[in-house]
Fold:
Amino acid sequence: MKAIIQRVTKASVTVGEQQISSIGRGLCVLLGISTEDTQKDVDYMVRKILSLRVFEDDAGRAWSKSVVDRELEVLCVSQFTLQCVLKGNKPDYHKAMPAELAQPFYNAMLERMREAYTPERIKDGQFGAYMQVHIQNDGPVTIQLDSPTASTDPKQLAKQEKAQQRKEKTRPKDHNKGATPAADKAARRPDQDPSASSGAEGDVSSERDP
Amino acid sequence: MKAIIQRVTKASVTVGEQQISSIGRGLCVLLGISTEDTQKDVDYMVRKILSLRVFEDDAGRAWSKSVVDRELEVLCVSQFTLQCVLKGNKPDYHKAMPAELAQPFYNAMLERMREAYTPERIKDGQFGAYMQVHIQNDGPVTIQLDSPTASTDPKQLAKQEKAQQRKEKTRPKDHNKGATPAADKAARRPDQDPSASSGAEGDVSSERDP
Structure:
C-alpha cells in the first residue's frame, strides 16, 4: 500500500457541484491499495498515519506532534493511480487491487482508523467516483509512505520473509487473526484465487478511469 | 529524486496573504531532491513529468495525452519532506539535499523543464518559504515517481551499476556533459566534498522547517 500524506490547513471533496466531505487542519491521505496488500499493511498504515509527527507542539517546535496528539482531522481518499507502473509514458494499473475487492478492503481500513482514533475525525471521499479533491497543503509538507508489502528494499524484504517463516512455523492457523471480515476476505484472496491478481485484467487496466 | 505528480483543475501558491503563482489545468509537482541526485535524475524526471500520459484525448479516451500534448501548465514546488526517513514516528531529513545545494539544483531543473517545453507554462513556488499550496486534484489522479537514483529495486540497481561501469570505461571525462552549470556543480558535489552528504547535518535535520 502506498500513501501520500499531505499536511493541510483544510481539505474537501466535491462530486459534481456538491461538497461531500471536508476537514479543517489535519492530514489529507491519498491511498493506493495493491493486489498484494493484507491486514498487515492496513495495520502498519493506520498506525503510521495516526502517529506521524508532522505538527508542531505548543511551543512551536516542528515535527513533534501527530494528528491524534493535536486532535486534528484526517481526510482519506482512495487513489488507485498510486499503484501505477509506467509502460514507457503510459500508466498501467494491473498492480492496483481491482475495485470490487479494493472497496471492502478500503472501507475496513477506514473502520480500523476510526476505531483507533475518533470516528468523527476520519472523513472519506466517495469510492470510485470522479472527484475534485481540494487540498490546501500547509508548508508544504508531504510524506510518502510504503507499507511493508510495497517495500522493495532487499534488507527489509529479507527481514519480512524471515518473520513470515517464523510466523508460519509457530502459528499456522491464525495469521489473519484480528482482521476485520472484509479486509480478511480481501487479504486471503490472492492465495485462494491466483487468477484474480493475474494480468488478465491488466490488458484494459490502463483504460481504467480515475 | 522523488516526485508526487497531481493532475489538477487548478493550483496556486500563496505566501502570507499574497498569491505568488497559479496555473489552470495541468500538473502540480512536488519534488524531493536527495543528496544522491545528479543530472541523470534531473533528465529522467523532466522527461517523465512532461511525457506522462494522464490526460484524455479529444475523443475522451483516458491516459492518452501528456501535459505537453494538451498544452497545459505545470506548477513545480520543491518539497524536501519527500526525502524523509522515519525514525519511529519522527521524520528525519538527512537524506534531503541541504537547501544551499538543493536551491541551485532545483533552479537548474526548472530551467531544463522550461527549455524542454514552453517557459511560460512552467510555474514555481518560492524555494524555502512557508507556503500554502492550493491543489485541486482532478480525479483524483496522483502518480508517484522515483528517479533512477532513488530506486531500490535490486534489478534496476544492478542495471544502473553496469551502465555506469560501461560509461566510466568508455567516456571517463564527460560524464556530466550536457549538464547546466548549477546542476553540474551540485551533481559533482558528492564526489568533491564527501562530508557534505554525511550525517553531520542530520542531527538537527528533523528540526528543519517546511
Observations:
- The longest strand of chain A covers residues 131-146.
- Chain A touches chain B through 49 residues (CB under 8 Å).
